[in-house]
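> example.struct
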């Protein structure tokens, strides 16, 4: 159990790191290269689709959907289309694995980005991550 001050530091650190998609992509690439690609289906059949490829998560928690939506400012991270529903009444968005499962990506909360359905269909199993755009507050 963490002491209250340490717990606050952990939460603050996660918040700062989760906001930086460039860091998250590098982090997920390292997890893919040094861990997931080495896993064997015969050793972990409950989580592996095949060697080096995890099974898709059956459930994505609502808190994660909301967190990714807000972090990515309601915009497709590939074409920068507004998918908030504020300008256009359609909320056409999907959560996408930055590093796809087929490329030894993970189902970790830090491996998701917000994309529109067109970009997600076009992307497929490719690794396409554009630098994180940050709108200014002023």
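> example.seq
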């Amino acid at each position: 159990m963490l002491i209250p001050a340490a717990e606050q530091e952990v939460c603050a650190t996660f918040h700062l790191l989760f906001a930086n998609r460039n860091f998250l992509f590098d982090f997920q690439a390292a997890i893919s290269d040094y861990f997931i690609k080495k896993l064997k289906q015969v050793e972990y059949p409950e989580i592996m689709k095949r060697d080096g490829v995890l099974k898709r998560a059956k459930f994505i928690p609502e808190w994660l959907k909301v967190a990714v939506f807000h972090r990515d400012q309601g915009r497709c991270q590939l074409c920068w289309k507004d998918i908030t529903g504020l300008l256009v009444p359609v909320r056409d968005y999907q959560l996408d694995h930055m590093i796809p499962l087929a490329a030894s990506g993970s189902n970790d909360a830090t491996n998701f980005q917000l994309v529109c359905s067109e970009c997600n269909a076009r992307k497929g199993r490719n690794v396409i991550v554009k630098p994180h755009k940050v709108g200014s507050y002023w």
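> remarks
The two ends are 40 Å apart (CA to CA).
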